[in-house]
Amino acid sequence: MPTAVLKTANVKKMIGKRTIVSNISLELHAGEIFGFLGPNGAGKTTTIRMIVGLSNITEGNIFINGHSVRSEFREAMRDVGCIVENPEMYKYMSGLDNLKIFATLYGNIDKARIDEVVKIVGLENAIGDKVKTYSLGMKQRLGIAQAILQRPKLLILDEPTNGLDPAGIKAMRALLRNLSQNEGMTVLVSSHILGEMQQMCDRVGIINHGQMVTVKTVDELTGMSQTSGKASLLLRTGDNAKSAEVLVEAGIENHEESDGIHVNIAADKVPEMVRLLVGANADIFGMDSMESQSLEDVFMKLTGEENK
Amino acid sequence: MGNFLSLVSVENIKLWKRFSTKLMVLIIVVVVFGLSGLVKAEQSIVQNQLNGTTQTTSQASGDWKQQLQATNVSLQQQIDTEEKSTVQREKNNLDTLKMEIAKNNYRIENNMQPQKDSGFWDWISSFGFAPFVALLAIIACSGLIAGEFSDGTMKTMISRPFARWQILTAKFIVVAVYSIILMILGYLALLGSIAIFFGIGGAGSPMLLWIGGNVVNVPGFVGSLITNGLDYLFVLVYLIFAFALSAVSRSRALATGLSIFLMFGGSFIALLAQNFDWGKYIFFADTSFSAFVMSGAPFYGITLGLALLICAIYCVGFIFAGYFTFAKRDIS
Question: Taking the model in full, what pTM does it have?
Fold first, then answer.
């Protein structure tokens, strides 16, 4: 079996007597985009900081391509690119100077590669300006540039969409997909935004209160929201009040909200419901799946936030 | 594994890309010239006042030996009194007195009449611009080490194929080289400014240094190298102190401020050493190395060798503290 790109073996972090994270055991395979998901304070950043050498590992070990972060730090870091929290660059130098510095550290990166990376993140126009003039989005993009510069096998991004506008988030998503598919990079992304993870990742590991709750593929997670063949739908009709009455009479569970009628119904009963509404002359303007909302429910349930 | 030399080159770029680094190079030259000019101006004022009063007749050259011998007699008396004392405070200029006597005897024996004005190399050796070099080097060092913590850029340096001790060593090398550059530039500026303001009279005269309890006769140029070399050691020990403080405190403000304060305040702490025989074990009391060879030990019970040894031990401790905290603690 090929060595996992990233493997954390029963990792624990304590500060003084307080346990921050414990029993973190993950394995990432080559080319996958792995989402590290959890509410704020769950331990995502703590775990990532241990992976990249910013924090000491109290117990357990972390292996990158088989190299232990504890005992073979330099070899392990050779294949890693990362952004942890907001990436800080040298403000008194230009973006290009910053990239040149990081290129020098790795030794085998030529000007062509630097230019290529600048183009990938879309900073051609601003790369010669001093970093102190950059907007947050530009700094974030420069952070990605320095992370992928040396073609790392493992890319670690801690909340990379922080501070990005929707266009930026979309571009980031496309970039990560591209890197994973075309360059075979393994990506570890952490976030607390479920929707983003769902669209970007292959697998998702949920962490809460310092412990891994579960690790599933996105499909498995989505499937969990559809409990035993039920469909969760959002109906937008011309007269929602009247349509709701029709449904109530037919015994279909629903309630009216400001955005439409929320319906919970067995999946195979959906066509029947549509015929019923059409038969009652309801004007159906739209029928959407509230799957992502139910995914939120799954997430909340798994992380136990509902009970708070 | 990254190449260590690439790391040193990267740290060097980080230092020199800062505007303040380049500015400080200019500052040291300007300060040296400025101070020389001030001293010259003060001297001119005093000279004008003296010229207004009547001068006593200058003695014939044969008399100077007798004068020195007479001075030696009274100096010896002072020595005898002080040596009898058991109080630290009263014995502090013993070494200086002994130096004076020895120098006078040397002059008498070797027919070296003392000159009225300071010679060129006397100026160069006693000027003492080292605290300014130390000031600038401390600022650069705090910026390069503690500054990266304060600015948050240290995070981007750690997750690289380098050990933490390599990063710290590269930074220290770069700052140490910078301090040497400043020292050399200051020395050259001094040569220029003294020549301009005071002329190069006496450039051929030798210097009498006090080394290991003996008068040592060296060419003026060599003497200036010895004293300025010892002055550089003053810069170096405070640089090592700032280095350790930067690595431990991780705060640019604290490292810069405290290092500079202690460097300039060190002479005040030396007062403690003058009054207590344990004072010499305090780091800040022992750092005026060039004073030993120019004017004798600054207080009783210390020699240049002992001062260098004590400071070296402190420096080893500082360096160890710096590396240990940098390598072991989490980076926030």
Answer: 0.87
